[in-house]
Amino acid sequence: MSNCRFLYHNGVVLEAPPVTTFLESHTGAYTTTRTINNGTSFLFWERHMKRLSSSIRILLKSNPELLFSSGSSPRFWMNQPVPGSSIYDRVNGSMSEALKSVVVKESERLYGEELAVTVLVTGNVEKLNRLDVGNNWDFLDVWLHIGAYSPLGPLGVGENAASLALVGRGRDVAAAKYSDWVRDLACGLLEFCCFFLNLGMVYDLGRLRKPLEKFRPPLTTELLLSNDGDHLLEGCITNFFVVCRRVKSSENLYGGSLSEFEVQTAPITDGVLAGVIRDLVIEVCLSEGIPYRERAPSWSERELWEEAFITRTIKVPVGSMEGLACNKPEEIQWKEKRFKERPGMITELIKVKLVTFITLRIIGFVLVF
């Protein structure tokens, strides 16, 4: 696998730090995807661009300081619409230029490899202050971080189990994906692993991710969020699902052919990010008659949980733990719930259908060398 890594900005190829460092040093809205078919197209490019546009509009309207590196952005602009097509054209233009400038020149080194691409859009205060009325969206800078895609390991192998811990409250501006919150990421597709869910609430850490890290148990690979210590919202960089036994009747239930169970995940209105794979899982449930309900999974109802998984990929949980509320990591006392080590019936069905869906309906940005 190549160690190639590039950063492209305003027509210039720059030295690229690791993507974690890159996001830590820039404020803005971002999305991450990967190439498929030996690097010839991007996975779900249209969906990623739609979410990126949505994130930019949300930040402009509610929290411009999360888009601009300077807090002096003029407020008069924030209620003005930014056409999604303008953002799409701007990012696509930058991507085409980057591919010509960088990827084509390195085609021999990258031949046959998949790429991981992070698109970060930041607000430029200087451009904003000298806006032309006829071009009133041209205050955004596009950054492209391009590198070799690294799979997370063999699928479904116990020693590669993911471990989750619930350590803090939900995010501010959860509907937008922005760099001030997410400090590390990895792009993947349908990676089935096992995990423990470690549940321990810490209420005094605020709503940024870094302070949560000191509460991360050993070998834990993801941190879950909840506002009340019971209803699980999402992971820091994933969405969270459970498959649970149904109790008589359920409100807001969709599907119906597998009536004994239902898939649950927190609704967007509770304060979660609409992940691309999250949306696809819901689409699969609808098309396959798998009952699902947009309801935050409740830890107090964990005895009804039969399966669980997280998405940015899909990962199959082995178990979960609950920690007593505390202020110091050493004070946490864990309780445990275990799942089967392999994907359960419904998780496996979702996996198979999602792979088929992706194989047949990939719509992406096609790379031309």
Automatic annotation (TrEMBL):
Pfam families: Aminotran_4
Domain of life: Eukaryota
Any one Gene Ontology molecular-function term assigned to this protein's record: catalytic activity
InterPro entries: Aminotrans_IV, Aminotransferase-like, BCAT-like_C
Protein name: Uncharacterized protein F28P10.50
Species of the source: Arabidopsis thaliana
The encoding gene: F28P10.50
